[in-house]
Amino acid sequence: MASVFPACSGSASLFQGRNFFSFATKGSSLHLKRSLSAKCVASLRTEISVPPAVDTFWQWLKEEGVVSSKTPVKPGVVPEGLGLVALKDISRNDVVLQVPKRLWINPDAVAASEIGKVCSGLKPWLAVALFLVRERSRDDSLWKHYFSILPKETDSTIYWSEEELSELKGTQLLNSTLSVKEYVKSEFRRLEEEIILPNTKLFPSPITIDDFFWAFGILRSRAFSRLRNQNLVVIPLADLINHSARVTTEDHAYEIKGAAGLFSWDYLFSLRSPLSLKAGDQVYIQYDLNKSNAELALDYGFIEPNADRNAYTLTLQISESDPFFGDKLDIAESNGFGETAYFDIFYNRPLPPGLLPYLRLVALGGTDAFLLESIFRNSIWGHLELPVSRDNEELICRVIRETCKTALAGYHTTIEEDQKLKEAKLDSRLAIAVGIREGEKQLLQQIDEIFKEKEFELAQLEYYQERRLKDLGLCGESGDILGDLGKFF
């Protein structure tokens, strides 16, 4: 079994094989001692409605010509911490803010700065992260008032203590978090050795691993990526907007060319409200419709109560010790997969396309190995879309069900215990942990049930041999082999 599915352990996929930087915006998680209603900003508009740093930030935006008395939104204290609140009624698709490119923080800003040359060979996110850390330490930074309102950390799992992470025992999110943290640490060590220490004149202030994790978290949670020619950009003010599951479209941000001042033109980030709002309502957007709750927890530090956001990743691999490794790898690559394949299974959704064919390919062997011959190379994936043989189908069912059983045994609580915990008032991080592990266990039970049902159907399935004989007219509709040919089967 292990030799057939060596990576089918239910563990989280390594981030290098995934779309690691799937950027979206995130509102501030600035935590205040006293929570005020969102409406206080619209109705009172007093200095006490937001911290002084936010007022200073707003004044800076005024001086830069970004906002004015006509701007329909303003930062306010909201349940999430800090967000954008409507100052008047706003219709759906109304522009709520525009921010000129000269205030964006992106690779172009890095290239134009003093550290541009030494950062030119870096991955874009590393260059921008280093730029963020350096700018935050400078008293004369253009963005100093923006940095003053940014949180020191969010509830993203990358900031959790060991005790808090222990609540994620058995989850894929724990493995993903630890992998990401180790990756960030290794990248920082390399940056420190190759860029920071050899250029002390450019980096006079000490840069710590905590500084770098702060910058990483800012990028992970606040950067936009769906703009024209912009794969990584942080936009002051726009990044204060929070997420809502009520918003079901991602078409809210645009890059346009327009007036950026009294006598200047520039590219502008334009944000439209996806919902109609009343004065005092908070402005929301959708961060990413396709992200799972685990991804939301890792990127932003929250999860949705919607069970449809729960997902579990099956990681499958063609073993190098497989005698048909080369043939199987060639077939996998010809159909858009590789030696290792990741399949995200979401709650209450069908199995993802390609999962069953890939499973059957990995398990293919014995008398079924003839399908790996070159004569079938152009048609084999079509054959794998359907059951190949009873032995092959039994094997994949047994392995997947054993995988689910093993993974379920790795959690330190049951679903019932998690549901009981959710009845109490939990702190934000424990609530995330309970929600994630309950969701993963529900997914594992769902996957197990799917393959359990397949096991019950094994005797009724039509396999490759029967399909082929029917195509040749040698098998009846009931599956009986015609004539004397039956004695050979």
UniProtKB/TrEMBL annotation:
It is found in: Plastid, Chloroplast. The keyword Nucleus does not apply. Keywords: Chloroplast, Methyltransferase, Plastid, S-adenosyl-L-methionine, Transferase, Transit peptide. SMART domains: SET. Signal peptide: none annotated. It catalyses: [fructose-bisphosphate aldolase]-L-lysine + 3 S-adenosyl-L-methionine = [fructose-bisphosphate aldolase]-N(6),N(6),N(6)-trimethyl-L-lysine + 3 S-adenosyl-L-homocysteine + 3 H(+). Substrate binds at R222, R226, D239, Y254, Y287, Y300. One of its GO terms (molecular function) is [ribulose-bisphosphate carboxylase]-lysine N-methyltransferase activity. InterPro entries: Rubisco_LSMT_MeTrfase_plant, Rubisco_LSMT_subst-bd, Rubisco_LSMT_subst-bd_sf, SET_dom, SET_dom_sf, SET_RBCMT, SETD3_SETD6_MTase. S-adenosyl-L-methionine binds at E80, G81, L82, N242, H243. GO terms for cellular component: chloroplast. This is [fructose-bisphosphate aldolase]-lysine N-methyltransferase.
